Structures are given as structure tokens and as C-alpha cells.
């Protein structure tokens, strides 16, 4: 049950990611009271989490299992609770096992004020990376019901 995209996570980010033009995705994050850091503002770490999830979706579109190696966030503007961050992310390039992604977040609409930017290096892994390192009960649950796992289903294309 992923904290960023899982429906069952009461205070999770409930991110939904959609295919865009090229090797690119978009997503929206409604900033709830549970996501607070400073009073009335989003916690910056949760914004980085959202970037991790959105950029991490690119490799599922590319069908390359990969994990985050490095992730850098530029926090451009404070983001109040109750607003929606619109993300756009794309793959900038692939070199060997290394995938280079970038993303931006805008306030309240895809053409809204830019509030954050991020770039990341993801590293391709074999699927047994997850089986080897994950706690056994959750890994077994995925193996028993792979269709329950969002990333193992077909990519959600445009709504
Ligand atoms: C059968 C079971 C089925 C289960 C199926 C489930 C499906 C999965 C479902 C859903 C999963 C996705 C969910 C999305 C979540 C969002 C993404 C996350 O948050 S992921 C979690 C956070 N990240 C980690 O936990 C990584 C921990 N780190 C590692 O495991 C290793 O360090 C790893 C794999 C990243 C690299 O280790 P190496 O030993 O494989 O490879 P080396 O040689 O060290 O690196 C490869 C290349 O990358 C560069 N590199 C690696 N880390 C770097 C860094 N931090 N900065 C710069 N370069 C880096 C290296 O310099 C090297 O480059 P050169 O090929 O020599 O040019």
C-alpha cells in the first residue's frame, strides 16, 4: 500500500498519474490538512515525496524497473494547505542503467504559478531487488495478487 498513491492510505497523497505527450506524465496533489509542516503550509518533505512518485511513474511507463538514486527539489514558493499542485514530469535521457528525470509543480492549474522543481536520477534494478530487500509479508502479498499493485497494472492513460 503505497503512501503516495495508495487509495487505502487515509492521510496519503492519493496521487493519480496520467500519461502525457512523449515520455512524460502529469499528476495532481490536493494538499490536505494532514500534509502540514509549518502552520497552514505543506511539509516540504511531502512535496519531495510527490516528486519521487511522479517521476518514479515514468519508468513504469517505460517498463524499466528502477529505484530513486538521487532526488533534488527546488522549493520556489510556499504552498498553502487546501490548494492543488499540478505536476508535469518527463524523462530527459537514459544512460546505461541510469534514468534522468525532471519535473515541475504549479499551483492550482497546469499553467499556474511555478512553485517547485525537481530532478532525479533513477537506477534500473532487476525485479528481484524488491523481492530481496522488501519485508517478506508485503512481497508475498504482491506475488499472490499482482493485480492489486498499481504499478504492475497497465499504465493509466488520459482520463
Ligand atoms: C518479485 C517481487 C515483485 C515485486 C514487484 C514490485 C514492483 C515494484 C513496485 C513499485 C516500486 C516503485 C515504487 C516507487 C517508489 C518511488 C521510488 C522510490 O522511492 S525507490 C526507494 C528509494 N530508493 C532506494 O531505496 C534505492 C536504494 N539504493 C540502492 O538500492 C542502490 O544504491 C541502487 C540500486 C540505486 C544502485 O546500486 P547498484 O549496486 O545496483 O548500482 P551502482 O553501480 O551503485 O549504481 C549504478 C549507476 O548509478 C550511479 N548512481 C547510483 N546512485 C547514485 C547517486 N545517488 N548519485 C549519482 N549516481 C548514482 C552509479 O554511479 C552508477 O553509475 P555508472 O553506471 O557507474 O555510471
> So, the CATH homologous superfamily?
Hotdog Thioesterase
CATH fold-level label:
Thiol Ester Dehydrase, Chain A
**How would you describe the shape?**
globular
- Helix content bin: 10-25%
Q: Bound compounds, please?
A: ligand 3VV
Order of strands in the sheet with the most strands? 1-2-4-5-6-3
Overall structural class, as computed from helix and strand content, comes to alpha+beta
Biggest pleated sheet: 6 strands, antiparallel
Number of H/I helices: 3
State the end-to-end distance.
23 Å
Assigned CATH architecture: Roll
For this structure, what is the CATH class? Alpha Beta
Strand content: 25-35%
Number of domains: 1
Gyration radius, in Å: 16 Å
Give the total of beta strands. Answer: 6
Domain Thioesterase: 40-95
Keywords: Apoptosis, Cell membrane, Cell projection, Cytoplasm, Fatty acid metabolism, Hydrolase, Lipid metabolism, Membrane, Transit peptide
Organism: Actinocrinis puniceicyclus
GO molecular function, one term: hydrolase activity
Amino acid at each position: 500500500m503505497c503512501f503516495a498513491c495508495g487509495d487505502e492510505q487515509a492521510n496519503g497523497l492519493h496521487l493519480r498519474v496520467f500519461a502525457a505527450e512523449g515520455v512524460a506524465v502529469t499528476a495532481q496533489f490536493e494538499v490536505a490538512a494532514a500534509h502540514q509542516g509549518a502552520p497552514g503550509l505543506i511539509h516540504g518533505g511531502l512535496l519531495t515525496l510527490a516528486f519521487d512518485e511522479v517521476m518514479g511513474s515514468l519508468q513504469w511507463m517505460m517498463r524499466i524497473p528502477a529505484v530513486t538514486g538521487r532526488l533534488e527539489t527546488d522549493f520556489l514558493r510556499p504552498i498553502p494547505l487546501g490548494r492543488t499542485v499540478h505536476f508535469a514530469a518527463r524523462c530527459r535521457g537514459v544512460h546505461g542503467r541510469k534514468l534522468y528525470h525532471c519535473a515541475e509543480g504549479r499551483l492550482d492549474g497546469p499553467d499556474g504559478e511555478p512553485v517547485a522543481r525537481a530532478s532525479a536520477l533513477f537506477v534500473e534494478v532487476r525485479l528481484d531487488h524488491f523481492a530481496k530487500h522488501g519485508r517478506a509479508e508485503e512481497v508475498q502479498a504482491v506475488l499472490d495478487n499482482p493485480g492489486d499493485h498499481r504499478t504492475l497494472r497497465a499504465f493509466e492513460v488520459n482520463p
